Amino acid sequence: MTDVEEVQVVVAHHERTTLRVGDVFLKIDTDQTRTDVEVEAMAMAPVPTPEVLWRKPPVLALAALPGTALGRLGEPSIASSAAWAAAGAAVRMLHDAPLPPWPGRNLDEDASRLDGECEWLITNDVLPADVVTRNRRIAEAALRPWTPVFMHGDLQVSHVFVDGDEITGVIDWSEAGQGDALFDLAILTLGHEEHLGDVVAGYGADVDLDVIRAWWSLRSLLAVRWLVEHGFDPSSPGCEVDVLRSQAAGR
């Protein structure tokens, strides 16, 4: 790591920070339980993941993956349809793997937060009441029983790396656990609805598209306040606020 030209801040807020120093990512997390999950999940996952170089709490050092991110929320993806399908196939491989021994996303917690977040969005004039109400109704379809799978839990498009049409790895496993398969597919395609068909084709199983769309609404409704409070802008073009408006319009 000599002769490094710069230190890049990848993400930073009061809970965690990720820095890139040359070909090494340094993840600093206030909650070492999340780091425990990340390290164990990467060891168990049947898909490529970053190499753990060392760990000295609160810092975890990971080797950079080859290739580039599949895309970013709010920006058109330049990745091929084949790359998106390969991402779907990788997710299916993960979901078919043995379950991790720890629990994952809590359905009851999401349901209990939903009304409060909707009220906050309306009270603070983030979105018109009819847009929030429409998305609240759509989101209800996600709140149903599911068969648990090995879920990544935060499968944002920027967490999947590709080189050409091939997947080179998946990063950020701190939210992994037992959960809903369609949640992963929804987060991967959030803001990139045009690639949903490619992902589902690569996934190779029947999925309920209405539930995926319900997760788009639910995830966005729950995320906006957190993003605002942590210095992010969910109203940027193509991001969560635009997703909610598009969902309400039925596009």
UniProtKB/TrEMBL annotation:
> Which Pfam family, any one, appears in the UniProt record?
APH
Instruction: Using the record's annotation, list all stretches that form the Aminoglycoside phosphotransferase domain.
Output: 41-206
* Top-level taxon in the UniProt lineage: Bacteria
Its recorded name reads Aminoglycoside phosphotransferase
What species is this protein from?
Actinoallomurus iriomotensis
From the broadest rank down, the organism's phylogenetic lineage runs: Bacteria, Bacillati, Actinomycetota, Actinomycetes, Streptosporangiales
